[in-house]
Amino acid sequence: MKIDSINTWGVDATRPLIMAGPCSAESEEQVLETARGLKEQGIQIFRAGIWKPRTRPNCFEGVGFEGLQWLKKVKQETGMLTATEVACQKHVNEALKMGVDILWIGARTSVNPFAVQEIADELRGVDIPVLIKNPINPDLELWIGAFERIAGVGITKLGAIHRGFSSFEKIKYRNAPQWQLALELRRRLPELPIICDPSHMAGKREYIKELSQKALDLGVNGLMIESHCNPDVALSDSKQQFTPTDLGTVLRELVIRHTDTDNADYNEIMSELRAKIDVLDDMLLDTLQKRMNICREIGQTKKDNNVQVFQSSRWDKIITDMQTRGAEKGLSNELIEKTFKAIHQESINIQTEIVNS
Ligand code: PEP
Ligand code: MN
Asked: Does the beta carbon of 49 sit less than 6 angstroms from any atom of ligand 1?
């Protein structure tokens, strides 16, 4: 897949790239007032939803075509690039006709290969940045498939937007971030710029800063944050939007870390620390090998005595003991549970193989 760098999008791509604007374009006044405020804060890309995918019918579903004229005015007056969400052929056609600079495919659309292909077909021969939000369910292959469809018609200015994943359980955030999945996307497509959308992750203004910082710490290329000149009366997502001034304040408080540094002291300390980690990782491997060898002996002993492999009371005891002792060592329950589940699963596999051999 050919993927151009973010420098080709037509903005000054110093990290992080910020895209901001209202969830929805509501009126010409609201769009222009918000855009002016954001321009003052140094924002380069203005986002606004024109067609809004809403969970339930009879909600505000966007202003449609008319709003594209307001985006045009934003561009003329402020020089910011404009971006909007497209979900079908008609949206792409109208957005391109009205000179929108950047398109994104929303989470409810990237989940649907028919819709993504329809959008791709309409983009054949066009040269425009196309950003794809993660599908609402954590399916990395489906997300990558969407990039392949868009890249398949010749689009090379691609970007991903991590906006979190929906879940049935009530959690702190509206859409749970899955940082691991975003990092795996980076591993699979290293050239692909990744933008984090902390607004749709958070669902609430108060969580946006912590999510933005976390995303920056992990090395995202930019942030997409919702901003409205008067969030309390916004027709969609009112609780997760900042005024442009408040957004500016939050952005200035974020710590931007270097991707790397030539500083000699830093490099010396890092190589010492990494050498220590390498030694410990070797010890972990040796320990795992010894543990699995004992599992083989256990498997053989169970086989000789015709005893079943899985004994749940033993497993419950291991995990509770490990969690208690882990906590004393400052290790999180999550780490203990995941690590020992994986080790235990492997032990069961080994023993099952021996018992059945
Ligand atoms: C949006 O960006 O306003 C939007 C609808 O986002 P998502 O597709 O992430 O829900
Ligand atoms: Mn929104």
From this structure: yes
